[in-house]
């Protein structure tokens, strides 16, 4: 599978992933034990085509009933545009795959114990304050538009789910629509030495609250460390997984 960054720089191993990452992101985000490094290690070890990361994704898709998966290409730090405003959702890595004749867009969110940012209510309050200072800011209008789609009868100030998960969903659906395919959103949680159990549990609860609020159906999983969900939104089949990666993978 070919992997590049969003500038077209090719990735062949962990070192080249680091170089490609630093071309498009900040050095402070590249640290052993944190999500960017852990994701890179997971998807380059022992090699890219036989990586633990691809096997993890393949196993989860198999549990969801999708076999014969062929990974085509991928891009780290990919921007998924989902509305008319300037900045889209930044995917930690997006993978385009095939299952027989169906295209699967896999938008991956990597975490250690980093939180899913603020709630929609808090993000909206901050956006309104920013708009008062700078009426050219689009953040307020973006939140209003996305909330009018999913929560037309609810005051935005009372919506307590995490905003990052909502635009993660919107961005991945937009990518699936482009190729008339299916959307898969695995959240990979790496239990490194830096992982904080208390924060991790809160993050998982925030994800579960989001799934419930968005009317996703819970699906069976044979693994205690993995939970699966499904919904159909805007005509797109959307599958989500919350996958906890334990420290058996050396050096993560």
Short characterization:
This protein is of the alpha/beta class.
Q: Layout of SSEs?
A:
Layout: E1 2-5, E2 10-11, H1 14-24, H2 35-42, H3 52-63, E3 69-80, E4 89-99, E5 102-111, H4 120-133, H5 139-150, H6 163-178, E6 182-190, H7 197-213, E7 217-219, E8 226-233, E9 236-245
Parallel strand pairs: 1-3, 5-6, 6-9
Antiparallel strand pairs: 1-2, 3-4, 4-5, 7-8, 8-9
Q: What can you see in these coordinates?
A:
- The chain has 252 residues and is of the alpha/beta class.
- Among the domains are: 54-113 and 162-245; 120-150, no CATH class.
- The protein has 7 helices and 9 strands; from the N terminus they run ββαααβββαααβαβββ.
- It has a 9-stranded mixed beta sheet with strand order 2-1-3-4-5-6-9-8-7, sandwiched between helices.
- A hairpin with a 4-residue loop joins strand 1 (2-5) and strand 2.
- Helix 4 (120-133) runs antiparallel to helix 5 (139-150).
- The relative contact order is 0.14.
Counted by DSSP, the helix tally is 7
Strand content: 25-35%
- Uncertain residue ranges: none
User: How many beta strands in the DSSP annotation?
Assistant: 9
- Average pLDDT reading: 95
Largest sheet: 9 strands, mixed
Determine the structural class based on helices, strands and strand pairing: alpha/beta
**Intertermini distance:** 22 Å
| Main sheet: strand order | 2-1-3-4-5-6-9-8-7
- Please trace the helix and strand order, writing H or E for each element: EEHHHEEEHHHEHEEE
């Amino acid at each position: 599978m070919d992997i590049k960054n969003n500038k077209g720089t090719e990735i062949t191993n962990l070192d080249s992933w680091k170089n490609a990452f630093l071309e498009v992101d900040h050095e402070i985000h590249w640290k052993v034990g944190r999500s960017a490094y852990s994701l890179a290690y997971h998807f380059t070890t022992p090699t890219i085509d036989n990586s633990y990361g691809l096997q993890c994704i393949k196993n989860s898709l198999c549990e969801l009933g999708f076999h014969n998966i062929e990974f085509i290409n991928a891009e780290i730090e990919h921007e998924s545009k989902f509305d008319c405003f300037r900045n889209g959702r930044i995917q930690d890595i997006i993978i385009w795959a095939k299952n027989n004749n169906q295209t699967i867009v896999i938008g991956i969110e990597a975490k250690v114990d980093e939180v899913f940012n603020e709630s929609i209510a808090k993000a909206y309050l901050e956006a309104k304050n920013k708009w008062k200072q700078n009426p050219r800011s689009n953040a307020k209008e973006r939140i209003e538009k996305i909330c009018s789609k999913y929560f037309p009868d609810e005051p935005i100030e009372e919506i307590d789910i995490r905003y990052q998960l909502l635009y993660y969903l919107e961005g991945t659906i937009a990518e699936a629509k482009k190729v008339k395919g299916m959307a898969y959103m695995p959240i990979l949680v790496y239990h490194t030495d830096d992982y904080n159990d208390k924060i991790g549990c809160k993050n998982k609860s925030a994800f579960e609250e989001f799934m419930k609020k968005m009317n996703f159906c819970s699906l069976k999983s044979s693994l205690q460390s993995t939970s699966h969900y499904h919904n159909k939104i805007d005509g797109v089949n959307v599958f989500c997984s919350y996958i906890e990666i334990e420290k058996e993978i050396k050096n993560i």
